[in-house]
Each structure stands twice: as structure tokens, then as C-alpha cells.
Amino acid sequence: MSPYDTKYALEKTQMLKGNFTFYGYTTSVLSLAPGSQTTWRLAVRSDPALNATTEADIFPIGTHVYTLEATNETFSLNLNWCDDRSQFNCRDGSCISLKERSGK
Q1: How many domains does the chain have?
Q2: Strand-pair partners of 82
């Protein structure tokens, strides 16, 4: 089981200040690294050894490679806006309907 959340919510009140933060429902937070406009930091509240970073121009939507800060090990994570019940998530984070994907 992954230590990272599978569902996140964008903190809308901070967006007006230019602070884009996605809060995981239980354990993690994804936000721009302090002083950066392209480095995103994924932090696990209970275990700083699992903190990781990735590079993205705007939002880290789609599949990105994250690097653990403690060990430099890497892993892939896909962040998307898709509805799991009715949409398929493509690697770039875009969504298509399940019907469209199946060709029906």
C-alpha cells in the first residue's frame, strides 16, 4: 500500500494568493516548493523520509517522476481530474469517457 493519498483536493482559498496546494484526504500534501514556480513537493505528514519532488510547468497533472529527497530513488505518480466511475485517465492527465475508450 502506498503512503501517498490517492485523492486530493485543491485548496481554493490559497489560490488567490498564488499558493497552489493539494491536500490529500489522509496523509499527504502536494504544493509548490518554497521559492519555486516549477518544483512540486509531495510531503507525507507522518514520515518526512517519504517526501519527494517533481518538476512541472503549471500543475503536476499527468504522470510525473518524483524523486525521494532522502534517497534520490524515483517513482511515477499520476495526478488527474478524471471521475473514476465514468472516465479513463490518460498518461498526460487528460480524461476520456469509458465508453469512448472501449469503442462502444
Answers
A1: 1
A2: none
Q: What is the pTM of this model?
A: 0.81
- Extract long-range pairs of 64-68: CB within 8 Å, 24+ residues apart: 64/40, 66/42
Residue 70 lies in a domain: yes
Instruction: Report if residue 54 sits inside a domain.
Output: yes
Q: Are 38 and 61 in contact (CB under 8 A)?
A: no
Region at 103 (left for phi over 0; alpha for psi -120 to 50; beta for the rest): left
Asked whether the beta carbons of 87 and 98 are under 8 A apart, the reply is yes
Distance of CA 67 to the CA centre of its chain: 13
Task: Render pLDDT for 21-36 as a digit per residue (tens, 0 to 9).
Answer: 899 999 999 998 888 8
Which residue(s) pair with 23 in the sheet?
9, 29
